[in-house]
Structures are given as C-alpha cells and as structure tokens.
Amino acid sequence: MKNLSSAEIRKMFLDFFQSKGHMIEPSASLVPHDDPTLLWINSGVATLKKYFDGTVVPKNPRITNAQKCIRTNDIENVGKTARHQTFFEMLGNFSVGDYFKKEVIPWAFEFLTSPDWIGMDVNKMYVTTYPKDTETQKLWAEVGIPQDHILKAEDNFWDIGEGPCGPDSEIFYDRGQEFNNLSEDDPENYPGGENERYLEVWNIVFSELNHLPNGQYVEQPHKNIDTGMGLERLVSIIQGTKTNFETDLFMPLIEDVGQISGKKYGEDAENDISFKIIADHARTVSFAIGDGALPSNEGRGYVIRRLIRRAVLNGKKLGINGPFLYRLTPIVGKIMESYYPEVSQQQEFISKTIQQEEKRFSETLDAGLALLNGVIADLRKNNETVIDGANAFKLYDTYGFPMELTREYANDEGLSVDEAGFKENMEAQKQRAREARGNLQSMGMQDETLMEIKTPSEFIGYDHNETQSTLKNIIVSDKEVKSATEGQAQLVFDTTPFYAEMGGQVADAGNIYDLKGNQVAEVVDVQHAPNGQNIHLVNIMSEIDVDTEYQLKIDTDFREKVRHNHTATHLLDQALRDVVSSRTHQAGSLVEPDYLRFDFNSNAALTPEQISELEKIVNEKIWAAIPVKTEVLPIEEAKKKKGAIALFSEKYGDTVRVVEIDDYSTEFCGGTHARNTSELGLFKITSESAIGSGTRRIEAVTGEEAFEYLNEQLQTLQETAKNMKVNQLKDAPSRAIQMADEIKALKRDNQNLKTQLTNQKSAEVFDNVEEINGYKVISNIVPADMSALRQLADKWKNDNSSDILVLGASGDNKASLVVAVNKAAQDKGVKAGDLIKKISKEIQGGGGGRPDMAQAGGKNPAGLTNALQLAKDIIKSL
C-alpha cells in the first residue's frame, strides 16, 4: 500500500471517481438545509436525498463527495473504542438511476487494489453480501476476490423504513494477527464481527427496492447506488495505526493537549481516553460552530454545549484547569484546510465562542458540584450509601457530568451510584427523542410520473408578466393525462411568467385564459419539478388540453410587492454585516407580498440603536434611487470579479444570476427584484426575536405596508398621549418619565409603610416563644408579603430571638413561608432548607434555601396553619 496523508487519500478518492465521469458535490454544511428530519448531516447521502427521492433530477446522475458529518448517538463510546467519533468524513460515490452493480463493484476493487490508487493486497480483503444476492457474489469473484473471502450475512440488507432499500455489500480489510484483540475461538473473530483485526472499509448499497407503507417491497423505477467509506478508518489502515486517533487527522491535536497538560499520550490507558475525547470534540465543535450552530440548551446548541463540557471535564482529568479547548481550533483548521478552509477562515470567531462557553461551564460545574455535595449530605444524614439514578442522570443531563465523574466523586465519599437507574433514565430520554423523531429519516418515494417529464420549459418572468404559451403536460392524481375538466391538476408549459417558489420567495399567483379571454384555471402554487420545470398547481374551471395555447397572466400587484420585499432582504442582509458583524449571514428568509422575514445568526438580541441604524441604512439606499442590476455569469467569474455573496446552504450551477445594487450589495439570487431601490418607498422593521439557538429573526415591511404600520403606531401614540393628559406628542416621553418617577416614589413610600408595620408587628411576633424538644421556637402567621417576611427573618437573626423561626403570610390567594435556623440548632442537624421542603407541601407549593434560611411559596393560604403545626411536629421528633 502507498504511504499517503489523509489529505492525499481524500483527493485521490474524488479524483478516481471524477475520472469515471462523476460530478464532485462539495461538502454541505453540517446544519441541514430544508430537512427537518435531521439534527445534523450524518452521512454522505443525507445531502443527496433530493436526487434519490426524485424531488430534483441532478445535472449528472453520477455523483461523488467527501462529506463532513456529525453523529452523537454513541457519544459515550468516543475515546473508549478505536473507531467511534462524533465528527467524521464520509467518502461516497452515487448513481441516480445510471450505473449499478456491474460498474460499481469493479470500480471499488480498482480503487482499493490498483497500484495507481490505494494498492491494497487483495488477499487481505473480505466482502460480505446478502445471501440471496448471487449476482453481487459472482461479480466480486470475477474481479479477483478469493471465493473463501466472499461471505454471506443476513443483515446485509439496507432498510430504514418506508422508501428506498436493497441489499448491500461491505468490504473489510484484514490488518493481521498483531491487531487481533480476541481469542481465536471468539464468535466475533471474523470479518463483520466486533473486533479490531478485520476493519470495515466500505459499504455499497444497491438501492433497487421501495419499502411500501403496507410492508411490501417493490422494484424502484430507477435503481440507485449509495456508497459510504469512512475517511478516518481508511487513513488508519493506510497509515498502519492501532486506532483512528494515531493518524495525522488527530495526532497534532493530541500532541498539543499533551503540551498543555504535561501528560504524554500512550503512557496511561485512562489518560489516553481523555486525550481522544478532547481531540474528537475539538474537531466537532470547531466545524459545527463554523457552520453556524452555537452553544445553547436545546437542539444542535445543546450538542455543542455538551461536547465542550465533556472535553473540559476530561481536561481536568489530565490536570488542565481553565479554558484550553479554544486553543485547539487553529490546529483543527490547519489539519483540514486543504479541503475545508472554513475553520481557518473563521478561527477567531470559533475560538472566542468556545472560550466563552468554557468559562460559562466553570460556573455550571460549581453548581453541579453543589448539587452533588447536597445529595451526598442527604445520604449520610439518612444513613444511605447509593446515589440514585435520577440524581445521577440530572447531573449528567443538566450539568454535563458524565457517569464516570459522578462515580469517581461517589467512590471518594465511600458511596456508589445506581447505574441501572441512570441507564433507565437515559433510555427514557432516548425513547422520547425517538418518538418525537418518528420515521421521518426515511427518504420519500420517487414520483415516477414527474421524474419522467422532461419537456423543455422556460421561465420568462424576469421580463414578462404574461405570455401566450403551449400546454405540454397535465398531471392529475399522479397520472399524466391529455385533458382535464375539473378539480386540481399540475401543468407544464413550454414558457411561463410564473415564478416557482425558491430561495424564500413565494410563488406567483395568477390565472390562465384561453385565447378568447375566458378563464380556464386559477394558479394557486408553482414549484420546481424534478427536471427543473416550473410546474403549476391549478384549480381547473373549464376544459384544458395538451398541445393547446393559453394566455398565462400573473397577479402583477402581488408580484410587485414581492419584488420590493425581496430587494429589501438584500439591503438588510448587507446592513446586518455592517451593523452587527462581518460574519453575520443569512439563515433563512421568507418573501411575501405584505411582509418579509429574514433570519440570521447571532448570539445576542439587537439593541434599539442597532435596529435604528439598520433602518437608516436601508432607507438611505432606497432614497438614493439606485438601479438594481441583474447579470448571468459563470460562477467563478461571479465570485472573483463581482465578489458576489453565496448562501452556505445553497448549491449553484456553472452559471449564476447575480443581483447587484450599486457597490453595496452583490448576491447570487434567482428571485425577482425591483428595477430601482426607489420603488421600495420605505422600510420599517416591525419585530426582532430569537427563533432558536444562535438564530434571530427580523420581520419588516416596505412601501404601503410600511406607511400603514407607521400610521398605526402614530395612532397608538396619540391615544396614549391623550390618556396621559399631554397636549403635544413631543411632550409624551417626558411625561412618561415623570409618571414612572411618581409611581416609583409611591412604591417606595408603600414599602416604607410596610416596613414600619412589620417592625411594629415584630415585637408581637418575637414575644411568643415556645420551648419544643429543647429548641426555642417562634412561629406565627403575619399580615405581610415575602419581602416583609425576609425583613422579619433578618431582624430575628440580629436580635437572636430564638433557635428556630417559622413565619407564614398570605395575600392575592398565595401563601408564603420563611424558615430560619441559628448556628446552634444547625450544629444539631436542623436545616432550614430541609424543614421548608416538608412543610411547603401543606400550602401546595415548594421551596428551598440554605441551612440557615429558606423560603417557599404556594397557592393554598388555608394550609398555613397546618404548615406551622407540621413544623412544630417535626421539631418535636428531631
């Protein structure tokens, strides 16, 4: 075998399949685009679903890619096994209805064994096949795989539910007896078993069947090839390393962690696990943040947060205190920059984001330790020795404590952990996730009817609002027909002015007429057919026939408003880069006739000043009456010559349509736009909000809608000024400030009166001292609120009025409790927090606090008397 670097292997794979007529599909973002079934892109085929389910027909049916992926379903195994990683690359070659077994098997053999490519020893190769797939077994033998190296396995059938499926064939490489980690008679000691000797290299799926909802399997109209080869595994084989982690993809990271920690990789098995976890997670979070995902408490953000915390905890095991993970981002970037330059390009932002999260976790870690110490204290008090599974899982799920850390702390205290209970809680969480996710990951069925329609159809709507066109195809109930008289149908014309929904811009509305001017159909939606035509969904009003000419007319008022709002999104996009950050990018948009919606990446809400500045910039461009120019250019020329901005989630062809607004905004865009910015009239932001972790949304209006919005705001202000007894609008702000000050003063006076009343009451409260079980106890219900109760507790503490204080109060159908305990009573085991938890149930509430003071709230004031009596009963039993 050749001695190759990871970058050389990746390039060699893509070069090989390009030489076989494949189109190289660039790696997509890890954040899925228009696929709600996936949290992350988790396979090479995930970004190609649109081709395999027939939604889109690719320009070239032969595709190859190197796709970055994230999987976290086996996160606990990372570092403990030779192969598990959260971030990895999948190399793949794909055929969408083109070649099949007779081509792909010889190609796989050639790439792996030819001295011109990888140069593997064929005698060390094994393949597994589906027992009934005799054709595949024959083809492997014909290319040169020894007959006794062609194995049959029942599980060699790829099926994830409804949709495409079929037999598959896996390729294994025998790394030799020196890598064998099992005994010779172990049932897993074979190619395909769980062992380190026979390493799976490649999986080839022959997607030839459809799994129907009724459980039946039928042949697909187009048979496909889907392959996947993990780059890290292949590199491990070629570079002769024991695990993936000793390859050039990981070792520079591991060596740097060694310098930071002062520890050396390979000297201690437990330390090695931490080295691997840190290296893996550094890659994952660097790429994920670079693709626009940010740490948070939900979804993708939670994954990033959890990985950073696991890395930090493993850093602590290596003796690293304080933020360090962020220092690895430049190394990740350098390792991967030959094919993924984005990490190096965004190095500063990624490092800063990771560092901030590391600092936050140090605070969370302290809170988690406080919870753990509290659990341990309760166990000792009750003479128990096992941390229950629910608390262990809470430490894991809320505070990022892996089980091994909780176990370590427990062992130090002479305790154990209910690991079975922990696993039950973990499985319950996974089950909830599975139920929420359902079977959505299955690919959709191929729509053979639409896939077979290849009629040329030209969109002329950039320059025409109506046209006379010939109807070429009618589809009713998924069947092509020659005519239709009623109901809904899908229509394809040879030319059309109707814009198909794309890039956030909604489809045109309008009508279809016969040449006599009679309306024959209403256009309710327009989408792209698999082969790219604009396909019109219509309500039929009278008979329509193929090969007949019709008049197509869009709703021009609808189109004009959409055009204006679309141009406004381009201006807003650039304004956000100017005002917020040069790294700000679009995360989605919707362009309707009456408003626009623009999503963008940001960790923080926009300030009022930033919103005002955005509006000012966009309106200045509108009032400058700038011509909006469009030009179709080769994509590389557009990038270099024009500096056009492309969306990271979009795929582009060889030529692109560039929309240019002076030298301010230049973007790739296939949508319709104003001819001049002055057509927009006015721009106004109506809202700014968070829609998810690290993503915010602006909604805005232009033109007539902007005027109406501002008019409504003015009317609201006028009504408010009238109610405030202000004659002129300009005086409203100062009057509002004045009224706020007056209200503040009244609240202060009210609080002072409450304090005076509390002080007067305190003498009565503190005079009533009971002796219970050797403790001096004061308990009473007073006419006060929680703030007053806390003041009484502070005065009680200063006066040292008793050992234990239990006070209750009610108001607004709510109940409040405060418990305070002096130092002497605490030393005897009385804890305010423990007492309040027990008695707060009487007021149908809950609470907690410190050993010296705790408080609770509830919704049952009638239970206060019982709560105070229960407190006395508990003290009696101490």
Automatic annotation (TrEMBL):
PROSITE patterns: AA_TRNA_LIGASE_II_ALA (PS50860)
Keyword terms: Aminoacyl-tRNA synthetase, ATP-binding, Coiled coil, Cytoplasm, Ligase, Metal-binding, Nucleotide-binding, Protein biosynthesis, RNA-binding, tRNA-binding, Zinc
Domain of life: Bacteria
Alanyl-transfer RNA synthetases family profile domain boundaries: 4-712
InterPro entries: aa-tRNA-synth_II/BPL/LPL, Ala-tRNA-lgiase_IIc, Ala-tRNA-ligase_IIc_anticod-bd, Ala-tRNA-synth_IIc_core, Ala-tRNA-synth_IIc_N, Ala-tRNA_ligase, Ala_tRNA_ligase_euk/bac, DHHA1_dom
Gene Ontology biological process: alanyl-tRNA aminoacylation
Matching Gene3D superfamilies: 2.40.30.130, 3.10.310.40, 3.30.54.20, 6.10.250.550, Bira Bifunctional Protein, Domain 2, Threonyl-trna Synthetase, Chain A, domain 2
UniProt family annotation: Belongs to the class-II aminoacyl-tRNA synthetase family.
The protein's name: Alanine--tRNA ligase
The organism of origin for this protein: Companilactobacillus farciminis
